[in-house]
């Protein structure tokens, strides 16, 4: 009898479904989680048709300007063959709107054509967005030297550190320094007037920068005098060459004066200089610079060591003499 009871208990236990072990439960959860992650990845990378009017300009400046003819050609190509490469956007703070990360040319072309734009929507923070923008531009657009410099300046002004800047452009620390030297010496107004100048590299731009920071050429003033001549140039590269040659002429003293020497010197000094002081043979012997704190005259120890020593010895008397002349000419003695 006892034997039959034990047999029944064994059969009853065998008929029960096996309890799920912790390992099996974890495996099931991981499968669901993996499926969910996969769906999220597919969704984030899928191409969507968006209304261009819902997409706002965003991101840092990485191009000097869009050429109207270039955009028209791209629009014709998209009209004939369709949009082959989607743009990248991220959700805006305003519900239902987006901000473009890259693909601005394609977006401009499709706005000309009309209809939806193919876009990938990704949720990216500002740092990830600027990295994507810089890396895609390097791969697809081949930006010019000065466009890279402008992009570096925009990243720097936005507070990004050197690591982010180097990663965005795929360049070394030394390369970033060469861009910054040019950007700090040449005003953005001059860069915009010249344009991208795709055929002009680091060496030429550095030469122009040195004319400003070493030779004291006032680039904004030169730009003001050359307005029409630059507009007549056939290309951005031609505008650069014309401007560089004019800056060289100013540095060498060969430029035709646009105003009296005294007026030109007054303007240069009061705009903050530095203005070079040259001898009759054209050699630069000193620079003069005026700032809010005072007037600074710097004599080149390298180019005129003996004169520099003599000037230091006789400076008191020279200052008194010059001050006396000023009193006479200004009538301040009266």
TrEMBL record:
Record Pfam families: ParB_N (PF02195), RepB (PF07506)
GO cellular component terms given for this protein: chromosome
One record GO biological process: chromosome segregation
InterPro entries: Chromosome_partition/occlusion, ParB/RepB/Spo0J, ParB/Sulfiredoxin_sf, ParB_N, Plasmid_partition_RepB, Plasmid_RepB, RepB_N
One GO MF term: DNA binding
Domain ParB-like N-terminal, chain residue ranges per copy: 48-138
Family annotation (CDD domains): RepB_like_N (cd16405)
Top-level division of the source organism's lineage: Bacteria
Similarity remark: Belongs to the ParB family.
The name this protein goes by in its record: Plasmid partitioning protein RepB
Gene name tied to this protein: repB
């Amino acid at each position: 009898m006892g034997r039959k009871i034990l047999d029944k208990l064994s059969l009853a236990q065998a008929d029960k479904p096996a309890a799920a072990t912790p390992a099996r439960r974890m495996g099931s959860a991981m499968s669901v989680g993996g499926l969910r992650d996969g769906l999220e990845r597919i969704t984030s990378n899928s191409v969507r048709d968006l209304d261009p009017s819902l997409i706002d300009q965003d991101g840092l400046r990485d191009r000097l300007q869009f050429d109207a003819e270039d955009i028209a050609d791209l629009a014709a190509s998209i009209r004939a063959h369709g949009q082959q490469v989607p743009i990248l956007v991220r959700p805006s703070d305003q519900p239902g709107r987006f901000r473009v990360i890259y693909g601005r040319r394609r977006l401009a072309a499709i706005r000309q054509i009309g209809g939806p734009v193919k876009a990938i929507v990704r949720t990216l923070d500002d740092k990830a967005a600027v990295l994507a923008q810089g890396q895609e531009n390097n791969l697809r657009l081949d930006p010019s030297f000065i466009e890279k410099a402008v992009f570096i300046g925009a990243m720097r002004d936005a507070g990004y550190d050197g690591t982010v800047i180097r990663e965005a452009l795929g360049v070394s620390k030394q390369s970033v320094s060469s861009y910054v030297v040019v950007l700090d010496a040449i005003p953005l107004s001059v860069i915009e007037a010249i344009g991208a100048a795709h055929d002009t590299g680091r060496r030429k731009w550095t030469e122009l920068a040195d004319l400003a920071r070493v030779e004291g050429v006032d680039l904004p003033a030169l730009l003001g005098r050359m307005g029409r001549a630059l507009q007549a140039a056939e290309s951005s590269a031609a505008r650069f060459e014309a401007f560089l040659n004019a800056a060289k002429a100013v540095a060498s003293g060969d430029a035709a004066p646009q105003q009296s020497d005294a007026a030109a010197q007054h303007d240069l000094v009061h705009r903050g200089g530095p203005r070079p002081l040259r001898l009759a043979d054209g050699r630069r012997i000193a620079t003069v610079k005026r700032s809010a704190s005072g007037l600074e005259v710097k004599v080149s120890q390298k180019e005129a060591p003996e004169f520099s020593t003599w000037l230091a010895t006789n400076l008191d008397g020279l200052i008194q003499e010059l001050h006396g002349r000023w009193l006479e000419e200004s009538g301040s003695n009266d």
